[in-house]
Amino acid sequence: MLVVRTVADLRESLRAARRAEATIGLVPTMGALHHGHEALMEQARRECDVVVISIFVNPTQFNDPTDLERYPRTEEADLAAAERNGVDIAFVPDVAEMYPSGSSIEVRLDGPLVDTLEGAHRGSDHFHGVTTVVAKLFNIAQPTHAYFGQKDAQQVLVVQALVRELNLPVEIRVVDTVREPDGLAMSSRNIHVKGDDRRRALALKAALDATQSAYDGGSRDGAALVEAGVAAMKTYDVEPEYLAVVDPVTLEPLTEVDAGALVVIAAPVGPVRLIDNAVIR
Ligand code: AMP
C-alpha cells in the first residue's frame, strides 16, 4: 500500500490507472478506523480495480471545537487496517494541503436536506463543510465510485445531491451500518463512551427496534412511532436531541408511515453525541 500526503503525489500515483480506464474507488474517512470503515473498504475492493482511502479530520465540518480537538487520531493503526483490507493508496493530507489558503472556498448545498435534523442541531455549516471536502476529494482523486455509510444517512442524501447538482461523474455506493454485537452502531466517537454510558448508548438501537415493533404491531402513525422510540430511550435514561420518522428521500417528517420510512435519532450520551438510523421494514 502506498501512503501519499500531497495532492500532486496522489494524482501521480493514479495516473496509470486513469489512463487504463480502470475503476477507482474512493473511501473518504476521518480515520480512527473501525469495522464500519472496513465494510466500506471491503466493498470498494470487491468492486473497483484501484482502492483509495482518504484519512483526513476535516475541520470545516466540525461545529464544536471541543469535538474537533478530542476527535481520535490513530494514523498508524489506520494505515495497518487499510493495508489489511486491500487498499492500494492511502491519501493522508494535512490541513494546509487540503486548504492551502485557509477556507476561502465553500461548496454549499442549500435547502431542506442540509437545514433539517443534523443541520438544524449542528448547524447547516456542518454539511457545507462536508460538501466542500467531498467535492475537493472527488476533484483530487477523480474516483469512478465513492463509498459512504448508511450510518450517516443524511450525509448520504447530501452527497448524492452534490453529485447530482454538480454533475460529478462518480457513482455513490452506500454501505449498511456495521454494529457492535449488542447493536451499538460503530463510530469513531464510541471510544469516549465509557462505564455506564456504554450501556446507555444502547438507547438509540433500542429506540429503532421499538419503532419497528410498533410498526409491526400495526401502528402507521408517525407521532405514535416517535413516542414508542422516545419511551424506549427513557428506560436507558437517554433523551433524544431529535427522533423522527421521515421520508427517506426528502427527510420530511411523516404523519402516515409506510415500509421504507427512515427513523433517525441523535442523542447525547455522556460526553458525546451519537446518531443512528434504520429503515422501517
Ligand atoms: P467518518 O470517518 O466517521 O467520517 O466515516 C467515514 C465513512 O464511514 C462515512 O461514510 C460513514 O458513514 C462511514 N461509517 C461510519 N461508521 C459506520 C458504520 N458503523 N457502519 C458503516 N459505515 C460507517
Automatic annotation (TrEMBL):
Coarse class of the protein's main subcellular location: cytoplasm
Annotated protein name in UniProt: Pantothenate synthetase
Location(s), subcellular: Cytoplasm
Catalysed conversion reaction: (R)-pantoate + beta-alanine + ATP = (R)-pantothenate + AMP + diphosphate + H(+)
Superkingdom of the organism of origin: Bacteria
Binding site for (R)-pantoate: Q61, Q155
Keywords attached to this entry: ATP-binding, Cytoplasm, Ligase, Nucleotide-binding, Pantothenate biosynthesis
E.C. designation(s): 6.3.2.1
Catalytic residues identified in the record: H37 (proton donor)
Classification via CDD domains: PanC
Pathway(s) where this gene product acts: Cofactor biosynthesis; (R)-pantothenate biosynthesis; (R)-pantothenate from (R)-pantoate and beta-alanine: step 1/1
Further remarks about this protein from its record: The reaction proceeds by a bi uni uni bi ping pong mechanism.
PANTHER family per record: CYTIDYLATE KINASE/PANTOATE-BETA-ALANINE LIGASE, PANTOATE--BETA-ALANINE LIGASE
Species name: Luteipulveratus halotolerans
GO CC terms of this entry: cytosol
Complexes and interactors: Homodimer.
InterPro entries xref list: Cyt_trans-like, Pantoate_ligase, Pantoate_ligase_C, Rossmann-like_a/b/a_fold
SUPFAM superfamilies, alphabetized: Nucleotidylyl transferase (SSF52374)
Family: Belongs to the pantothenate synthetase family.
Binding site for ATP: 30-37, 149-152, 178, 186-189
Role description: Catalyzes the condensation of pantoate with beta-alanine in an ATP-dependent reaction via a pantoyl-adenylate intermediate.
